Amino acid sequence: MDVILLVLGLVCMLIGILGSVLPVLPGVPISWLGLILLYLAPSLEFDWIFITITGIVAIGLYVLDYVIPAMGTKKFGGSKAGAWGTTIGLIVGIIAPIPFGILIGPFAGAFIGEVVFNQTRGNHALKAAFGSFIGFLASTFIKFMATLVYLGLFVYKVWTNLDSFF
């Protein structure tokens, strides 16, 4: 039972890291689920304080994931069309076989969103697209770092209790 929970927890950690970059997966909450699965192993003592604190962080980052890109867009004069364009551009950038698609896609999507839906022109559209892109990068970086920290906590707990699992 311990090994099954350990493997499932590790799978959640890896999916969480992937989800920190992909907008369709809630990366930090999935990584947190991996921590819960680890602590459900019968050979480990469940640490309510640790799980509660990491859960609050996961929920907070999940909420900030929607707030940060909007703040970046608003700060640089963008609109919701630019923010949506960033997300759609990311998905297209991941799927499209172009170099650096994951970086070019969000910026191009924000620019297209501003130009097409708001009839924004020239420098204003570029500025708004840049704001959407910066908000996206900041949010992605924070989520990615959080999932890496959760993975580090997972590995530490497994390493310090290795004899309990096997």
From TrEMBL:
Transmembrane annotation, as ranges: 47-68, 88-113, 133-156
Keyword Zinc found: no
Keywords: Membrane, Transmembrane, Transmembrane helix
Pfam families attached to this UniProt entry: DUF456 (PF04306)
Listed InterPro entries: DUF456 (IPR007403)
UniProt xrefs under PANTHER family: DUF456 DOMAIN-CONTAINING PROTEIN, IG HYPOTHETICAL 17883
Protein name: DUF456 domain-containing protein
Organism: Marixanthomonas ophiurae
